[in-house]
Amino acid sequence: MAHPLRRIPVLGQFVDERFLEHRRRSTSAMGLVAAVLLGGLFEYRLAVHHVLSWDLLGILLAMVTVKLGLMIWYRLRD
Question: Do residues 42 and 57 touch, judged by C-beta distance below 8 A?
Answer without folding.
Answer: yes
